Amino acid sequence: MALLGSCLTLVFLVLVLSDTATSALIMSSKNHQSRHQHRRRLPMFQTNQSTCALFAGTWVRDESYPLYQYSSCPIIDPQFNCQMYGRPDSDYLKYRWQPLNCELPRFDGLEFLMNMKGKTVMFVGDSMGRNQWESLICLISAAAPQTQMQISSGDPLSIFKFLDYDVSLAFYRAPYLVDIDVVQGTRILRLEDISSNGNAWKDADVLMFNTGHWWSHKGSLKEWDLIESGGTYYQDLDRLVALEKGLRTWADWVDNNVDRTRTRVFFQSISPTHYDPSEWRTGTTVTPTKNCYGETTPVSGMTYPTGEYPEQMRVVDNVIGDMHFPVYILDITMLSELRKDGHPSIYSGDLSPDQRANPDQSADCSHWCLPGLPDTWNQLFYTVLFY
Predict the structure, then answer these.
(1) Which of 127, 141, 168, 348 is the catalytic position?
(2) For the chain, which terminal residue's Cβ has fewer other Cβ atoms within 10 angstroms, N or C?
(3) DSSP 198
């Protein structure tokens, strides 16, 4: 990530700092991305004074944050509810994302409901998508606490409704996006089949997809026993090859089934993990822990100290770049890399007391606390949707 971050920083500084304005209001960009434009990793927003690199910037302390309290949110899974499960520090809640040369509009839950009246927003993917889905529910309900709400929880589909506005926020669990069939007890990951899942997505007005983490899982953590591709069954495949095949099936489905005059499609970039302190602690600093446990502040600056550009994102970029439908990449990867402090660590309702006592082995450095980082993902999502 460091090499990518350094290169991007140089590019953005040349583009942005050439303008003397230090801030600007983001003007409407909507979805005017050509096929070549939506290949760009970090879309540029034209503002009234300058060019805003929405996903390049720094984290700044802001005492007006968080935008809601965990106790007031109607839905936070135990694994994300760090304050409820004993996290002793709260400074990680006090950071706001500051893009280069512009200001993000503050999230307005009532505006979201008014603009999306009568519509459905659906998150599709793995638990990172669920993390973002629950964050959006928290943000909106904090702004409209008197609104009647209804939740229908299920697997793979859960729906949260704001009844007074006829707005539905849905989460559809599909960690690989493509279908998994069970045949005589054998779970088969079908890289060229997405029909079962896709049927549930067709009527959404806004779709936010994500995938990534489950493609690298091995052993008992993977959700399949065999992989099927082109009529051949495999015990395993190169995971990047499998990811690309699955993503191209998804891309073909979007190109052939989604009405661009009605539905907007987003793809959440890869959410990073923080299991290796050597990535952010350079020099001779002694590392007291083996992961994100005990981290209470973001990485300073605009780039992650070490690491490489995720190979999975190269696959995502290539696949989306070949699509006809203008999919928007919500590029949360770099800004999330800087938030080593934002994970549940041992403050997760999914951990036993024995696991909490052994953070080196048990800390969750993949998911994110709520309130927390996914609220910024949704602030960016809100900005792209409405400005």
Answers:
(1) 127
(2) C
(3) H
